Amino acid sequence: MTTGAFERVVRRAGARRAEAAEHCDLCSAPVSAGHRHLFDTQRGELMCACRPCSLLFDREAASEGHYRRVPERRLRLDPVPTEALGVPVGLAFFVMRADGTVAAYYPSPAGPTEWEVDQQAWRDTVDRCPELAGLETDVEALLINTARDQQQYWIAPIDDCFRLVGVVRREWKGLSGGSTVWPEIERFFAELQERR
């Protein structure tokens, strides 16, 4: 291989790595590993955001448009009575929507499974856990982990919740999840504790 050909191979490999790196979904600037996210309320999607773009969408500005900056608050709660919410599994998260309804999701090997929460049951739960009254619509969630004798209840950003969905999708094997999914879920919650 000639020097020129070698240089072209190296340049192409660098270009492929640069293309594979994450970019801001608004301005296409590269973003760092710890970048912020925006939630597009019209499309119901999370978007990567560079620092300047994420700063454009603070709470006040977001109320006028359809982009909401995902907050970074992670708050561990005392046990929350969730039986009335109809949680069929030990991992789930609950998101208040702008229209006042509450969507519940649980991570599955096929992605997030969604169901609608009874509004009165949600109001009763908020009465028992007043911290939930401060959830930011669309961008924060009540995240619960009662699987395998765990008792973890969090107010968490939705990007963390969907990261958990990714962990379950990536690691789940067979009918019961296999040997790697539960250690990875435990690691996720340990990291959540460290990042609060």
Which structural traits does this protein have?
single chain; 196 residues; alpha+beta; Ribosomal Protein L24e, Chain: T; 2 domains; six-stranded antiparallel sheet; 6 helices; 9 strands; 34% helix; DUF5947
Low-confidence blocks of residues: 1-6, 13-19
- Rounded mean pLDDT is 86
How many strand units? 9
Structural class: alpha+beta
Strand content: 15-25%
Distance between the termini: 52 Å
Which descriptor suits the 3D outline? globular
Pfam family, one: DUF5947
Structure overview:
The chain folds into 2 domains: 3-69, Ribosomal Protein L24e, Chain: T (Roll), CATH 2.30.170; 75-195, no CATH class. Helix content is 34%, strand content 24%. It has helices at residues 3-20, 51-56, 59-62, 119-128, 158-171, 181-195, and strands at residues 36-40, 45-49, 67-69, 75-77, 91-96, 102-108, 111-116, 140-145, 152-157. Strand 6 (102-108) and strand 7 form a beta hairpin. The protein is globular and about 45 Å long.
Q: What would a concise description of this structure say?
A:
With 196 residues, this protein is of the alpha+beta class.
